[in-house]
Amino acid sequence: MDRVAEAFAALPREGFLPRQQQRSAAFDGPLPIGCGQTNSQPRTVEAMLRLLDVKPGHRVLDVGSGSGWTTALLAHLVGTRGRVFGVELEPELVAFGSANLDHCGLSWASVHEAIPGVLGLPGAAPYHRILVSAMASELPDELVTQLHTGGVMVIPVNGTMLRVSRSMRDTMVTRHGSYRFVPLR
């Protein structure tokens, strides 16, 4: 079993959904988690994690962490030597996601309330990897600058999944299919 499949097996989606959605956990589509937000389609999350190529020991930012599921999956991938910072705008979801992470015992992962008007968590940058689970209208430089040299970000922009790689000299962007997400705010 590969590392991404192991993470999915170790952290079932059901444990990160509101009680009324838990019986729908196997549904391969987005599910509402409150505050107008969704828990992303498992197939989409899997594709994003494979593009991100997280390694043990990485420092990772999870933008739009919602219920904490992607934060937990990332924590499994980085292991105890790594660190995962989730950011979420909705205080109710920050509390829900934090409780879900605590229940899993993933002390090297945390969910922080996002500051309105500020993308990411610049104070904890740089990051080896950034996962964005909300649709941007354009590639946000504010997040690109939070990437470590050699870092990778996966982000949906205008309906297309982008993999952004930052080197010392430039930023390389590749396209990886069409997707729909809630808007990045």
Low-pLDDT stretches are none
The helix count comes to: 5
CATH class: Alpha Beta
Tell me the radius of gyration: 15 Å
Major β-sheet profile? 7 strands, mixed
Counting copies of identical and different chains, the oligomeric state is: single chain
Write the CATH architecture name. 3-Layer(aba) Sandwich
Could you give the order of the helices and strands?
HEEHEHEHEEHEEE
Number of domains: 1
Structural features, described:
- With 185 residues, this protein is α/β, with parallel strands linked by helices.
- The chain is built from five helices and nine strands; from the N terminus they run αββαβαβαββαβββ.
- It has helices at residues 3-10, 42-52, 69-78, 91-104, 141-144; strands at 31-34, 37-39, 59-63, 83-88, 109-113, 127-132, 147-157, 160-166, 171-178.
- Strands 5-4-3-6-7-8-9 form a seven-stranded mixed β-sheet. Strands 1-2 form a two-stranded antiparallel ribbon.
- α1 (3-10) packs across α3.
- The termini are far apart.
